[in-house]
Amino acid sequence: MSKLEIHQIPVLNDNYLYLIKDPDSDAVAIVDPAEADPVLAKLDELGWKLTHILNTHHHWDHTGANLELKEKTGCTIVGSAYDVARIPGIDIEVSEDQPYMFGSQKAQIFEVSGHTNGHIAYWFEGSDALFCGDTLFALGCGRLFEGTPAKMWESLQKLRILPDPTKIYCAHEYTEANANFALTIEPQNSDLKKRFDEILKLRAANKPTVPSTIGDEKATNPFLRPDVTDIQKNLQMQGADVADVFAEIRARKDSF
Length: 256
Ligand code: ZN
Ligand code: FE
Prior knowledge:
Structural class: alpha/beta
Strand order of the largest sheet: 1-2-3-4-5-6
CATH architecture: 4-Layer Sandwich
Bound molecules: zinc ion, fe (iii) ion
Helix content: 25-40%
Largest sheet: 6 strands, mixed
CATH class: Alpha Beta
Mean pLDDT: 98
Oligomer: single chain
Order of helices and strands: EEEHEHHEEEEEEEEHEHHEHHH
Number of domains: 1
Number of strands: 14
Strand content: 15-25%
Shape: globular
CATH superfamily: Ribonuclease Z/Hydroxyacylglutathione hydrolase-like
Low-confidence stretches: none
Distance between the termini: 45 Å
CATH topology: Metallo-beta-lactamase, Chain A
Number of helices: 9
């Protein structure tokens, strides 16, 4: 089986859209289309025909172009069965109990509420690719607009156990600000310090820091590390409930 072809399209201030193609079936999807024009231009450039939209959650900067793209291309819209009422134009409802077949590519669906209720992530194991919207970011996680910290922590643990090489195709370039915050939580983490330097170099050259990998996130992202002793010590929460440590890190980020 061939791997997905993946193109990253930067739009708005800091959003990333992903145009993906299954070479075995010519299925082509845009993940979380905030805007239509950049997608149509990229399709044109590549000579691809859009067949699907994959949404991770209902926010306008992830679904804003759903209806326009459906009207212009006749594509099919795939979204969360947990959030049908808020995904514009949804045709296919997906949920955690069943994988979704995108052409010949199998996507496992994770229900990862926290940023919003009914947020989902698509894991294409055969392509080492995770499309996780605003749940997990490079060195960060989404703001808790609708869910509790405990719910978000439960969601992130579903992603944390994926294989280390899994690429994290998240929906925003927030990495530099996240790195500044992460260093306040775990200043002694040498992997984090090294990564911080790399991020500064990439951003200075106006290059994306996304995708990262689960392996990198596990080693450096404070939101995947509330059970690490150094972090608990730094927060004076040694031995505390891990979900409470996670909640404290999230609260500190909210006021950073
Ligand atoms: Zn969002
Ligand atoms: Fe967003």
